Amino acid sequence: MTRQTVASLLTNRLAAVSELHVFCDGPRPGQESRVREVRQYVRSITGFARVVLHEQAVNLGLSRSVIGGVSEMLKTHERVIVLEDDLDLSAGFLDFMNQSLQAYEADPRVMSVSGYAFPIRHAREQAQDAVFGLRASSWGWATWRDRWQAIDWEVSDYARFRWNPVRRFQFNRGGSDLSRMLDRQMAGQIDSWAIRFCYHQFRHGLVDVFPVRSLVENIGFGEGAAHCRQDVRGWTSERMETAPTRFRLPVDVRTDPDVLRQFRSFNSLTARAVRVAKRQWLSLAERFGLPRSAPVASPPKGPSLLGPLSPR
Hints:
This protein has 11 helices and 9 strands. The protein has helices spanning 2-9, 32-43, 62-73, 93-103, 145-149, 158-162, 165-171, 178-186, 194-203, 257-266, 269-288; strands spanning 19-24, 50-55, 79-82, 87-89, 110-114, 130-133, 141-144, 207-211, 216-218.
């Protein structure tokens, strides 16, 4: 999937003037040959202004790899765009990310920029190409040095937050899973940099910028995926095929109540329960040869989907 991600990135007109830094974690036991193959491929990549491979001798794991890699880049750069290796990108991805980074660089209320858009609905008369949300996405995102360096990765106020029902309710405006995910992180049950990123955003009242139609599709659910063959979580968004070269970005940094309502609904306990039921059904269907139809988690009801954006 790394090859597909790079190939889609190269369809962006700004790729040729962009540096590509690839951080390759050390192999887990039994994965040595696979890691060698990926590194060999990265050394062959062309089409960017510069390609740099950062190799780890030992396996650091997800959080340490991301935090360490982003921190290293921001020592010498004011801003950074971060990709996982299982994403398919629109040709307008780099335009949107760079224009948003430029537009909101001086506004400390904006924590990050996302190229992925949750499958929510917008009015057809939507005048802008972006909206603001309360939950960052790790599927193609960007941030600035000052925002990143301000994050408390130790979550030093967690003891107070843990037993504060009001604060937990407020944090869960971005999804009812957030507080519990932070609990699991602090208990050492998961290895997530993203939940701590989201908590910092919540704690300081910051927002994220999202395109109204996704510029990123996660392809980590296909036949070649290591952990999941289908998008059983219902997070698939229609990726924008024809993207403008100039995006209409909001001047006023403020959230839309309807967009926030859909964020909450999509990440609600009920919606997540439906997606879990679908995952279990698909597992049983595959095991026993049953029909594969299952409950589908649809986007929350709302105005009709935004029509195609015209190139500019």
